[in-house]
Amino acid sequence: MAHPLTKAAALVTDNPRASKVNDRFAALPASAFVRLRALLDGRPAAMAAIDMTIGEPRHPFPPFVTDVLAENSADYGRYPPPGGSDDLRAAIADWLGWRYDLGARALDPDANVVVVNGTREALFNSCMALCPLEKGRKQPIVAIPNPFYQCYAAGAAAAGAEALFWNATAETGHLPDLAALSQETWDRIAVVFMCSPANPQGAAADRAYWSKLLELCRTHNAVLLADECYSELYYDAPPTGVLEAAGGDFTNLLVFNSLSKRSNLAGLRCGFIAGDPDLIARMWKLRSLGGAPVPLPVCAAGAAAYRDETHVIANRALYAEKFTHAEAKLGNRFGWRKPGGGMFLWLNSQIEWGVNGARAAQALWDLAGLRVLPGQYLARETESGNPGTDYIRIAMVHDMATTEDALLRLTSLDPSVFTKAR
Ligand SMILES: Cc1ncc(COP(=O)(O)O)c(C=O)c1O
Description:
alpha/beta; seven-stranded mixed beta sheet; 41% helix; Aspartate Aminotransferase, domain 1; three-stranded antiparallel beta sheet
């Protein structure tokens, strides 16, 4: 039987009533996971499966979270406030001030912070809510790094904007080239998404990069939506946050982060938007009218998690151990360099095996039971091709033993399988 998401994708495109409904999402490709099923379904794997597709942390979350949820369970009976609890916003403002050395309460918990139920929906909603209908009497542009986290393109579609896929390749340090866009293009750009450390490449923007990007956005009156959900998973120095580069002026800037990766609480759905008070007020209002607020017991658990760094340090150490092992196993094979942060290996199968990521993903599944994502599904076609085509993405979410097993299977794959198949 077809998976419900595959069915939904078919409905959007095949439905004869499609013209009667808003079909602005029809052109969006199905999610990478649905496309992977189409690529691998029906193909038996020669070894026990290890799924390294989804970036869902498998490390334990801090045990105190369960206690705090239980202690506050009476509050499940109450409607939560749209901006989150005062205490959680205060904990977030304090954490941001400490993490980015902003000084005490540089961010006002009421004016600069709003609590959201994870950042995926918040990124989508912010683009939809803040992108104007026109810019300079033209259709606005939403600039999206390419490859990218797929909800950005859904946000651009919701806003009725043109999505501009801004290549972030090895040649440009896996971040978009800030000099690549013309003045004319910038005049139409209303929203810029940026992710650092980036999913999938792990590249981290430095202070100069953030400052330049913020300056460009302000000069051209565009809003910068900075997705920093991997900020706490790093392998050397802590990645610079855009708030550090902002120098106390948050105009045109919103930062998104959550407990999903920092605290392995992807299922808690607890995060925040922080930055420009005018934009925060708009998002707060929208949440009060049509948003799903974060339940009060979750706010209490979130505040406790933001006030504890011990579990974050321990979590980072688990990832660091796996990335150190990957470095020892891979060296610079697959054109790889240990990234600034994040939880993925972004490997160039074309360099290593002479095949694209889709072919590599099939072979890794067939012969080694490794389920990985073809990079092509995480990026879009541009004039210079799809920058993900030559890559596979491997989520390093498992425990050390499973990771070792997976890396051994990856590096033991005999490349002659590809030449034989040609
Ligand atoms: C780049 C990026 N941004 C945002 C998210 C959304 O995370 P959450 O909604 O759990 O905060 C993810 C999740 O994997 C992600 O990879």
